[in-house]
């Protein structure tokens, strides 16, 4: 049986830091980076604050970014760096729902401290330094996904 390639996912600049763009990278040698601007994060923070769900702002937005890089990389087995310890079950649940909406099912997701020597960390740090990503996620995309999941 063919061995599945394991991808690693890492984040630079936490979602809740709304003064800077957040980057999420996926890597297994080759890599992809998605980002969300500080402007879009501020819009999302305001939306979720009005719902009295500030934690969901962080977790759901992070989940969308992770799901986006997984989809674009066509990854099937992923290790995500532990960014929001104690909330991995919620993040994984959101990601499964998001990838299902995109008809991309069957992704194996786990969480682990991947460390600064991982290629995902190197890629996301470079993206942060150069301010470059392959795909930009907009607030509207996050809100559409959130509304689809909450109608289900």
Shape: globular
Kindly give the count of domains.
Answer: 1
Q: Mean pLDDT across all residues, rounded?
A: 93
Low-confidence stretches: none
Q: Can you count the beta strands?
A: 6
Radius of gyration: 14 Å
Please summarize the sheet with the most strands: 6 strands, mixed
| Quaternary form | single chain
CATH class: Alpha Beta
Biggest β-sheet: strands ordered side by side in the sheet: 5-4-1-2-3-6
List the total number of helices. Answer: 5
CATH topology: Nucleotidyltransferase, domain 5
The SS-based structural class is alpha/beta
Q: Strand percentage, roughly?
A: 15-25%
Order of helices and strands: EEEHHEHEHEH
Share in helix:
40-55%
Could you give the distance between the termini? 37 Å
How would you summarize this macromolecular structure in one to three sentences?
The protein is α/β, with parallel strands linked by helices and about 150 residues long.
């Amino acid at each position: 049986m063919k061995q599945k390639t394991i991808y690693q996912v890492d984040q630079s600049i936490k979602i809740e830091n709304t003064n800077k763009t957040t980057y999420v990278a996926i890597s297994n040698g080759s890599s992809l980076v998605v980002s969300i601007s500080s402007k879009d994060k501020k819009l999302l923070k305001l939306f979720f604050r009005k719902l009295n769900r500030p934690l969901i702002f962080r977790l759901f937005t992070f989940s969308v970014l992770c799901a986006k890089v997984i989809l674009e990389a066509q990854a099937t087995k992923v290790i995500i760096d532990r960014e929001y310890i104690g909330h991995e079950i919620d993040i994984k649940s959101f990601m499964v729902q998001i990838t299902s909406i995109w008809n991309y099912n069957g992704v194996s997701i786990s969480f682990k401290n991947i460390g600064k020597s991982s290629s995902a960390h190197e890629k996301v740090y470079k993206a942060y330094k150069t301010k470059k990503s392959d795909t930009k996620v907009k607030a509207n995309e996050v809100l559409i996904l959130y509304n689809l999941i909450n109608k289900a």
